[in-house]
Amino acid sequence: MSVPDEMLEFNDDQSCLFEGKLFTGLAFRDFPDGSRESETEYLDGFQTGHEKRWARNGILVADYSFLKGELHGESREWYEAGQLKSEAQYELGIELAYRSWDESGNLEVNRRLEAGTPHERMLNQKRAAL
C-alpha cells in the first residue's frame, strides 16, 4: 500500500497509523510539480526499510535504513550535484561509524564507536534485550 504521508497519524511511541491501524507500506511526499520528494517504508507501524529523499532536480540526496523506528544499517547523503556527502553505519539506533566529505571530496569527519563509551554500553544493552 502506498499513501501520502500527510494521511498518517503518529502515536506517542512514534508508531504510525493509517485509518486507525498500524501502517505497513510506503508513505510518500511529492513536490508541488508532482515529482517525488520522499518515500518512507513502514512495517507494523514503525519505519522499517528505507527512507529516501530527493532534491527538486530529481537527484537522490538521502537514503536512510531503519529497523523498528531506529536507524539500522547503512545511511548515505549526497550533495545535489551527486557527490557523496556522508555515510554512516548504525545498529539499533546507535552510530557505529560516520564519515563526511565537503563538496570537493575532502574528508571532513571520520569517527567510529569507541569501546567503553556510554553509546557502546547502550548498544550492548539493546543487543541483550533482543
Automatic annotation (TrEMBL):
<protein>
    <submittedName>
        <fullName>Antitoxin YwqK</fullName>
    </submittedName>
</protein>
<dbReference type="InterPro" id="IPR011652">
    <property type="entry name" value="MORN_2"/>
</dbReference>
<dbReference type="Pfam" id="PF07661">
    <property type="entry name" value="MORN_2"/>
</dbReference>
